[in-house]
Design goal:
5 helices; single chain; mainly alpha
Amino acid sequence: MRSGQASWTARRVAAQRLEFRRVPADHGRPEDEQRLQADVAEGVERGDFGMTRYLAARTAFVDRSVVRALDAGTPQALILGAGYDGRSLRYGGRTWRGSSSTTRTRRPTSVRGWPGSASPGST
């Protein structure tokens, strides 16, 4: 991974996610999540990288789990090892019942300059 840039794997996964049908919800900002994925995937040719079916199934499973948890009133969710996951954008907002916020924690070198990201050394 180059300093300040997403890894090749993260970029390929983001390119794949742009093509997947996502679980709909009546909340959040899916267009912001799409912009995040497009930004991370910039310059990556879309196509099947050998893991498309797995990534589509995993994405659908986690999407369903997040939406169900939010709809049930779960105040907080933590998705570990998610890379450049945009579910806090796609499904967040008012659905968190107004009592919680979303926080992204990543390697400082991979998020420099991202709005709302933790400053280097504070993650």
